[in-house]
Amino acid sequence: MRYLTAGESHGKQLTTIVEGVPSYLPLTTEDINESLLERQKGHGRGKRMQIEKDLVDIVGGVRHGYTLGSPIALVIHNDDFKHWIDVMGEDPVEDPQAVRRIVSRPRPGHADLNGALKYGHRDMRNVLERSSARETAARVAAGAVAKKLLAELDINIVGYTKEIAGIKAVEFPDYTYEERDNKSKASSVRCLDPQAAEQMVNAIDQAKKDGDSIGGVVEVFVEGLPAGIGSYVHYDRKLDGRIAGAVASINAFKGVEFGIGFEAARLPGSQVHDEIAWDKEHGYYRKTNRLGGLEGGMTTGMPLVVKGVMKPIPTLYKPLQSVDIETKEPFNASIERSDSCAVPAAALVMEHVVAFEIAKAILEQFPHDQFPKLQEAIKNYREEIRVF
Amino acid sequence: MRYLTAGESHGKQLTTIVEGVPSYLPLTTEDINESLLERQKGHGRGKRMQIEKDLVDIVGGVRHGYTLGSPIALVIHNDDFKHWIDVMGEDPVEDPQAVRRIVSRPRPGHADLNGALKYGHRDMRNVLERSSARETAARVAAGAVAKKLLAELDINIVGYTKEIAGIKAVEFPDYTYEERDNKSKASSVRCLDPQAAEQMVNAIDQAKKDGDSIGGVVEVFVEGLPAGIGSYVHYDRKLDGRIAGAVASINAFKGVEFGIGFEAARLPGSQVHDEIAWDKEHGYYRKTNRLGGLEGGMTTGMPLVVKGVMKPIPTLYKPLQSVDIETKEPFNASIERSDSCAVPAAALVMEHVVAFEIAKAILEQFPHDQFPKLQEAIKNYREEIRVF
Amino acid sequence: MRYLTAGESHGKQLTTIVEGVPSYLPLTTEDINESLLERQKGHGRGKRMQIEKDLVDIVGGVRHGYTLGSPIALVIHNDDFKHWIDVMGEDPVEDPQAVRRIVSRPRPGHADLNGALKYGHRDMRNVLERSSARETAARVAAGAVAKKLLAELDINIVGYTKEIAGIKAVEFPDYTYEERDNKSKASSVRCLDPQAAEQMVNAIDQAKKDGDSIGGVVEVFVEGLPAGIGSYVHYDRKLDGRIAGAVASINAFKGVEFGIGFEAARLPGSQVHDEIAWDKEHGYYRKTNRLGGLEGGMTTGMPLVVKGVMKPIPTLYKPLQSVDIETKEPFNASIERSDSCAVPAAALVMEHVVAFEIAKAILEQFPHDQFPKLQEAIKNYREEIRVF
Amino acid sequence: MRYLTAGESHGKQLTTIVEGVPSYLPLTTEDINESLLERQKGHGRGKRMQIEKDLVDIVGGVRHGYTLGSPIALVIHNDDFKHWIDVMGEDPVEDPQAVRRIVSRPRPGHADLNGALKYGHRDMRNVLERSSARETAARVAAGAVAKKLLAELDINIVGYTKEIAGIKAVEFPDYTYEERDNKSKASSVRCLDPQAAEQMVNAIDQAKKDGDSIGGVVEVFVEGLPAGIGSYVHYDRKLDGRIAGAVASINAFKGVEFGIGFEAARLPGSQVHDEIAWDKEHGYYRKTNRLGGLEGGMTTGMPLVVKGVMKPIPTLYKPLQSVDIETKEPFNASIERSDSCAVPAAALVMEHVVAFEIAKAILEQFPHDQFPKLQEAIKNYREEIRVF
What we know:
The structure is a homotetramer. The first copy, chain A, contains eleven helices and 18 strands. Chain A is α+β, with helices and mostly antiparallel strands. Chain A has a single domain (2-386), classed as Chorismate synthase AroC (Chorismate synthase, AroC fold, 4-Layer Sandwich), CATH 3.60.150.10. In chain A, the strands form six sheets. A five-stranded antiparallel beta sheet of chain A has the order 9-8-10-16-11. A four-stranded antiparallel beta sheet of chain A has the order 1-2-7-4, covered by helices on one side. The two termini of chain A are 29 Å apart. Chains in contact: A-B, A-C, A-D, B-C, B-D, C-D. At the A-B interface, helix 4, helix 5, helix 9, strand 11 and strand 12 of A face helix 4, helix 5, helix 9, strand 11 and strand 12 of B.
């Protein structure tokens, strides 16, 4: 399973092609829209999120509610494009100087300047239109297909907020997927801990008032994975490596950790590892899950738990100093509108990004031409490892 | 540039093939041996490291001290194999029951059990021989080629220990690559801070006495990277994603972070981003480097700074509970010999793993058939972005 | 450079995403439409080609007539979809039995039966909608981007018909690209030889009358390639291997050959190889081009010449025997409408498929972030090898 | 499944790493040596083939006669390297001018000149040592693993000579795999037709006498493939495309065709396609196999038949004109020793190259962690499609 995305933030549309999905996976427009709409939620989002509803159009690979086995094409139209035709149109323009909204002032914390240097863009709109976090909608669309596939295999995945601006949610180690999913959806900051959530909301409002922005930590929890997904035999097949790579490629993410993560540097080995137990009913299992369900590049059968950290959005009302690339004069990067905190949405994005990597690993390991056969193979595998 | 490795811990040899290296890169056996020998150093390693010296044999792709452009093959022989022929030989055996050193007891924290379930190994030696951290020697060999390539482009990279068992080294933000490299090599725990280093040594000795193991945080620092390496245009081309993926695939690593990393969740946006400055001599630059030299999936021209966390080695004298897969009886996983702390070596491994990803990204971006042309192209690019 | 395509023959649209194109390549809708319209021409096409004009909509990666460096998304809408919503819509249907146009009768020579067995499709419309040669329009769109890139590097490529139904065009070894392109476009069967062309037209008409179909051989000619594109160092980097792989993946193609191709089995070595000459003005050159401009997996600097063979279209008025997969009863595969010969269009498709592989190989070898820099690098390389 | 090879013709060794092989495939040194020794046979080979016996050393991934699931490393040592240390050693030399056997005279038909231009080699030994057909021994080693895997799935593959220097073997359409394998091995030119074989031997002897070389056509025949291997859903997953790409990347191959191949350009559609039949015992089958067992990018269940053409070896006693790259003087490329015909060996090489692509396609489609499970899955699939 692989995918490509295309599209600029104010362009005509976002396009995603997902190749390698089995035939006969049930999949509807609603399945994907549900994910897209969740992405737009969250206390602290700017106005744009409220105005435009992202809706998918499935334009290939699905017929009568089932995948065909052929590549799936997903389009998210940009209704606002009609106001951007002059600025973003694909046709040549007579007078390049007359183009409006040229960006010669790179924003710190964005791809603007580095992208301009690399691709030779003097109008940095050419960078920011693609480097914008809007592209994550296309990744969520791809991930929604993966999430549906996993759900049909009884593998459920949810992302939520663990920390915003230093406010940490308490741990609920015993919460099931369902509890996490319900509580996450019920919270305006996608946080399982109502007390922390309230503080987070206040912190977001305060940041907005201050013209500042705040970041946070999000967690993705995956329930139902059998042991042995991934591999230890070659470095680029380890599941943790693949997940970390995908997560760190999400806009504004600066770190990833599995299970207790960086805490593993502070604890002795005897308190880090998950002892192995067995009983006739369940087969092998662990009493703890400090390693986040991953050991030796493979799943252990315990829930997979991975965190990512998102830096505060760099587009601040509070200006950051930068330099105009034409005049070389310093200026204060000020903006018109922005989100003050995108962490809740980031939880949703990371959920879908992780879903894609897990689904991909499963498809590599099991027969995947026809989805019902995959279902059966997973079922058989669960039994095989139970009695191993 | 791509590579494959092969070889079991007690097998005949480790083999690495690196494909895609330009012609006329100066490269000698010594260049690679230097890295391999550094990997074996470090207070807290077990006896094995002291007995066997890993030495490379270049068996393809290099002639008279220069790369040919053809694939480079690197072999690290295992002198001890003669004692393991019966156990690890490739030839069929008459009586599989008579094979010695069968492993039916999976060690928590290792790939043993998950690998057995996945590949159907009832003798888990078939897992541990490959999942062993010994394979990192093969990855270091590949990374040594990359490191040499980078050095010849005036891009220098060093890994060192930031934290062991909760003991944190102080920050030396102004240290150059050279200072970091010198101080790292001078320290038995590869730590820049001598006070912390002393405490770390003590902690390692104490852990050994306790029959326990300890982990830590390592940092890799890369100096000399021009801005614009990596890309924002597609998620799988972002340099941070690729580095995170490679680092998280190192044995026992449980997390990765760039620059201030998880601290970004606690600071307001105005204190996270690196403002952009310019002067005629240097072109664009940053006064701070909180984002670790990466912005929008690309380098910023500041040093690239990335940390990884290594969990304590799971092979402890202090036993962890597990279950024999044949008898299903619980047992205490006890071991004969082991390292109590492998963090210093992990710093070296991560250095080489990061070097490979960076070299790969550079080769994708610049002409790379002939190394001297690559050198010239990098030089020209540095000037172009200086005057951009 | 890589691409994915999606879309069913009677679905909403064909979608192509091309990733890895440099910034600042001039590219317009017209550039791509020109290729798409050429694909629809050719004596012997059925009615469908005449009714629907394929036109591209560039929906990502291009702004104001230039590529941005970001992925390029290309859409070819299917205006006829409104008549196919019930049959091909993505939404679940209440009564799957009521769906019209179910295909339970596999056509010999098509993917129908094999695809049904693999993906478990009992309605083989699920196969044929994707396996249809209509998908080549999406590949032509991707190839048109490559063709434009090559043209701007003074590398020109054209495909034409060499043989239809055993009627062979004479060789015009001295024709330039321009002559080949002009004569090909002027011919209703895309054949350089007017006498042969006339016979081919007659053969096509006769086949139509007979209710039969005919195939042929097409040739692609590439002028302006410098020597040394491709590589000998690893098998999967050889340019001939990559071109052969891409050509053999075109619908209905059953063979590929370079230069004299299969004739090389009949001639002594002294009459097969192209002797090497040199003069001050041109540097190294060849007096003959029997090997089709490829030697050791790389270009020689002579025109690249590659042929492909297309089998006759299997959808015949003259019935072929097959078996209904529901009733297991034999039936005669009869059809309502069809092309009797698609060879001229196949020449155009192959031209674009080869263009993509060549552009890809060039982008791997030269700096490719910014197109003007690529142009300069190619210019410099041409001079370097001239004076080598 | 993927592989890399490394090694120069007169270097220390050839190295192959094959990654992605399931665990518990029976595999011995003999399995691979059998293939290597077959490669060295054949009337018309030069002396080198008779002196050195290529023997493999399995140095990773296999234990006690079974694969481990970890990467397999295969080494073919070059005993003659001791005589080549000065010329080919990896260590820097004091006086590069003093190096013996510098090659400044490119041989037409070889990679010498194009490789020199690309990689900047003024000593073209740096090209020819890697571009030499000796590398095919490393590919045969990789293919031998694939061939063993296929054999254990009752999929058998054999390559043989169809034509040498215009002498064509008659067709034996009804020969089984076993007959083809036996007759091929019994013939000194690996030809099924004893009359043609005799003429071929004479032609080879005559060519040798003439100081010339001759090429030919080889065919690979694969029996036992179930229908539906490969895919039509995306161009780069079509099995014919992959096989053609791999075959065209074999040294000296100039063309590939499937089934009747180029003949398809001369026959009407009604005589090209393979009608579909069915009976209760066999399920679907074809009465003819004109398309060579491939339709729509997938297997049909009939034997896969693919031909490749090898040009005459360009290293002739009969000189070809070329130019010294230092003096720019023309010279006659003369040689000391050579094969006059390598077609029989090419049949063996192609057999192994095709085996690898088929095994790879099967592993992508079926569960492949444990070989016994793959066996069972193939068995079940055969039954499923029989009763489809």
